[in-house]
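Researcher: Next entry: 7,8-dihydroneopterin aldolase (Flavobacterium bomense).
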Amino acid sequence: MGIIKLKNIRTYSYHGCLIEEGKIGSDYIVNLEVKTDLRKSSITDDLKDTVDYVLLNHIVVEEMAIRSDLLEHVAHRILTRIFEEIPEISRIIVAVSKLNPPIGGDVEAVTIELEEYRS
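Model: Predicted structure:
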């Protein structure tokens, strides 16, 4: 088995419960970790024998472009879509961070993290 990590995927998205957040948007960072079997690809050196991290990045960027009120909702969509499109993945951890959230204080980021196993 093995782990593939995509760190600090940056997007400008429009998530949030406030009307202004949907209009103005803000910066986000997504971190993704997936568990899959990397033994075959480590021997064959062939992309078809592994999980394509370009596809993982594409899924994250597309789902981040769809507005949600809650970070939990967008993270769940990312999890669901990865499991649907890439059957070789057995576990996913996704963390979605909103940078400089409008919460009335000096907060660098707020992050939610979800972890799911293929059922």
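Model: Note for the record: The beta strands are 2-13, 26-36, 91-99, 109-117.
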